[in-house]
Amino acid sequence: MKLKNHYTTLWLRLIVAFGLLVSIPVVLLVLVTTDNLKNAAIEKIEVSIGRLVEHKENVISLFLKDQKDLLVILVGMYPGGYLGLQENLNTLFKSVNQTSSIVDLHVIDSSGNQLAYVGPYSQSILGKNYNDAPWFQDVLINGSHISDVFLGFRNVPHFVVAVTDPLKSYVLRATINSESFNKLLRSSQIGPNGESFIVNKEGILQTPGRQGQIELSADDKSRLEHHEGTVVTRNKETIIATRWVEDGRWCLFVKSRIEDSLEPFYEKRNNVIAIIVSTSVLFLILAAIFTSYFLARLEAYERKKSELGHQMVQMEKMASIGRLAAGIAHEINNPLQMITNQAGWMGELLPDEDPALVKNMGEYQKVVEQIKFHVRRASTITHRLLGFSRKISVEKESVQINDLIGETLSFVEHEAGSQNITIVKNLAENLPVTMTDGPQLQQVFLNLINNAIDEVGKGGVIEIRTVVGTGNTIGIEFADNGHGIKPENLKKIFDPFFTTKDLGKGTGLGLYISYDIVRKLGGTIKVENRKSGGAVFTIVLPVNSFNQPR
Amino acid sequence: MGGFNVLVVDDEEEFRDLIIKRLIKRGLKVEGAESGKRALEFLEHSDTDVVLLDVKMPGMDGIETLRNIRNLRPLVEVVILTGHATVDSGIEGMKLGAFDYLMKPIELEPLLEKLADAYEKKRLHQEKIEQAQMKKHIAMPG
Question: What predicted TM-score, i.e. pTM, was given to this entire model?
Answer without folding.
Answer: 0.46
